[in-house]
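Researcher: Let's do a round of design. I'm pasting the structure tokens now; please hold your answer until I've finished.
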């Protein structure tokens, strides 16, 4: 529908020079240049992509999950393609929070982009320690608490599916994260995401990231073996977009906290779909595997959509959509 509206606007104003558009968005206290961020675990520490992507053009990016100690991750194979999606079981391999601060952050600081540190732990104390190390470091604009990873035996999703555990870990993280905003990344595999979202909001989350991957599996019947070293993994990519879109919509109805939507985003229309059900910004994950420039390309595509529609801001295009179809 929005595309129809875009083409109508284009037809009615052909020949006029496009004005500069403002893609900036507000996520709580944080102003981002645009609503496109690269998602955790799919963009390394950012540095791996810096020769391909102009990091300064992104709304920002979320680092790989950081843990208290370095983690070796899961056995190979860790990735497997499925129809319209991808399965992964990376098992949160990372250099550990201290090496991130001493080796990666000093290089990252020279970029003019919003860097959000994704934080992971097996216990509440783990989460707190990671945040405390990051609190002493410069160059970050916020934290994203991963309470939803399906690829580790303990922690992760266990925290994210019980409202009282969510309240405990988010409340404790909130107290430690005094310098910066705290985003909480929710699990999609819950009976009522509104309850989990409300628990995170009440415990002090500044934004909610909806959502992580879906626990899933792929096998080869010839060998009877899983296609992943960890046997099961997390499903991402276009296959999950309609399911996650509904979760964003349900979360929006339950809480006032800003939402970052992600799951299967590949085009500007996908971004606008997420914004139209209540997300303030989006993250791009699996699409970066097919095209490492996917996130930057989406910034360009979104700019073009607004220019063609003669809209100056994202709110303007959203308001127009709601007026015509609401
Ligand atoms: C290979 C891979 C690694 C990931 N690692 C993390 C991670 O470390 N922390 C996290 O919160 N999410 C992680 N995710 C989940 C993504 O950030 C994202 O929530 C999910 O893939 C859905 O978005 P997409 O369909 O655009 O990929 C990972 C996803 C993939 C594909």
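Researcher: That's everything. Go ahead.
Model: Designed sequence:
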């Amino acid at each position: 529908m929005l595309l129809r509206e875009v083409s109508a606007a284009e037809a009615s104003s052909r020949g006029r020079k496009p004005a500069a558009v403002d893609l900036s968005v507000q996520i709580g206290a944080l102003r981002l240049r645009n609503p496109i961020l690269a998602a955790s675990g799919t963009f390394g520490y950012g540095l791996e992509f810096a020769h391909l992507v102009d990091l300064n053009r992104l709304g920002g990016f979320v680092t790989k999950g950081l843990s208290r100690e370095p983690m070796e991750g899961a056995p190979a194979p860790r990735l497997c393609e499925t129809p319209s999606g991808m399965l992964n079981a990376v098992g949160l391999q990372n250099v550990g929070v201290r090496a991130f601060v001493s080796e990666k952050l000093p290089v990252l600081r020279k970029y003019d982009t919003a860097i959000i540190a994704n934080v992971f732990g097996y216990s509440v104390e783990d989460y707190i320690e990671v945040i405390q190390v990051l609190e002493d470091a410069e160059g970050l604009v916020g934290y994203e608490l991963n309470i939803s990873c399906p690829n580790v035996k303990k922690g992760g999703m266990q925290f994210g599916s019980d409202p009282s555990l969510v309240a405990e870990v988010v409340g404790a993280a909130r107290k430690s994260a005094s310098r910066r905003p705290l985003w909480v990344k929710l699990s999609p595999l819950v009976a009522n995401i509104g309850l989990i979202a409300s628990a995170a909001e009440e415990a002090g989350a500044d934004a909610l990231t909806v959502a992580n991957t879906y626990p899933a599996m792929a096998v080869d019947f010839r060998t009877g073996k899983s296609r992943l070293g960890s046997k099961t993994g997390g499903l991402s990519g276009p296959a999950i977009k309609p399911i996650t879109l509904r979760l964003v919509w349900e979360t929006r109805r339950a809480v006032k906290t800003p939402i970052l939507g992600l799951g299967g985003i590949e085009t500007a229309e996908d971004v606008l779909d997420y914004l139209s059900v209540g997300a303030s910004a989006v993250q791009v994950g699996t699409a970066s595997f097919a095209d490492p420039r996917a996130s930057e390309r989406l910034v360009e595509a979104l700019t073009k959509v607004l220019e063609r529609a003669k809209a100056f801001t994202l709110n303007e295009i959203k308001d127009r959509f709601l007026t015509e179809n609401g």
